[in-house]
Design goal:
This protein has 288 residues and is α/β, with parallel strands linked by helices. It is built from nine helices and twelve strands. α4 crosses α5 and α8 runs parallel beside α9.
């Protein structure tokens, strides 16, 4: 089982590395640290008789830099320079590398300062997410990994929509008993004259119905933050992650319902911008 982490060579883009490594260690996956090399732009400043020789020189230098980066974080991983093919954009090159590795997850910072330099959910991140039938771990800022004993703690959000259930088959290879524990979270918006216990009681059966989608043996808990109408769903999710000590938050890209939980819209942008832990996104598709 492989996890592909991408960097553009910037310090900011490497912030995702220790978080991806924490997940890799928890599930027993091999971590591959990759960087996309564009032969015509990245080798342009190298003096060589042929482009192939210039590219080889850059590749050798980058592989050494990737090894140094891994060693600096105390991570046992494999460096990989991903050469961009003619007519291929950066997301396609990353997607191809993930396919070649048989990766179960791609990890990348939401913004860097090089090829991956866009705002939260910029073109490269969204391009990778749109192409990959894989979970994509993103991170905004550079928060440290919080060490703790016990299984990796994954907070999975739901809004009750069919699209939101896409997260479960995509995450299945990572949901290993004894290695990962899950908290299912749904933010409940109170109705008129409804008490908080009544709101939770209304939403709990739908959340409990998701339990069979998680492999047997995986520890599962339920968390139902209750908020008034108009409150920020993203804020409630982030506060839940902090309160519960989650290692990461996982969501489908478009969970939509009357409660406007629209991942890849304002909710996702808020969670990705403010969350102190990585956000794992799964491209949505209706699931029965």
């Amino acid at each position: 089982m492989n996890i592909l982490v991408t960097t553009d060579g910037s310090e900011r883009s490497a912030c995702i590395l220790p978080h991806a490594a924490a997940l890799a260690r928890a599930v027993g996956a091999r971590l591959v640290l990759g960087r996309v090399l564009d032969p015509r732009s990245d080798a342009a400043g190298v003096t060589a008789e042929r482009l192939a020789a210039a590219v080889a020189e850059v590749r050798t230098r980058w592989e050494a830099e990737l090894r140094t980066l891994l060693a600096g974080h105390g991570i046992d991983g494999e460096p990989r320079v991903i050469e961009r093919r003619w007519g291929e954009d950066v997301p396609a090159a990353i997607h191809r590398a993930a396919d070649e590795l048989g990766a179960v997850l791609i990890a990348m910072a939401s913004r860097g300062t090089g090829a991956i330099r866009h705002a939260v959910f910029g073109s490269v991140t969204m391009g990778v997410l749109g192409r990959a039938d894989l979970p994509v771990m993103t991170l905004s800022g550079c928060p440290p990994v919080t060490p703790h004993d016990g299984p990796y703690h994954l907070l999975i959000t739901s809004d009750g929509s069919p699209d939101a259930r896409s997260v479960f088959p995509a995450l299945a290879p990572l949901l290993l008993p004894g290695r990962v524990r899950v908290t299912l979270v749904e933010v409940v918006v109170m109705r008129a004259l409804e008490t908080e216990p009544e709101a939770k009681a209304r939403a709990l059966p739908g959340l409990e119905a998701l339990r069979p989608r998680i492999p047997a043996g995986v520890e599962v808990a339920y968390h139902l933050p209750v908020v008034p109408p108009g409150a920020g769903i993203d804020t409630a999710i982030i506060e839940a992650a902090k309160e519960l000590g989650a290692d990461a938050i996982a969501s489908a890209t478009h969970g939509h319902s009357a409660r406007r939980h629209l991942i890849a819209g304002s909710t996702a942008l808020g969670v990705a911008r403010l969350a102190p832990v990585p956000v794992i996104l799964v491209k949505s598709a209706p699931v029965d």
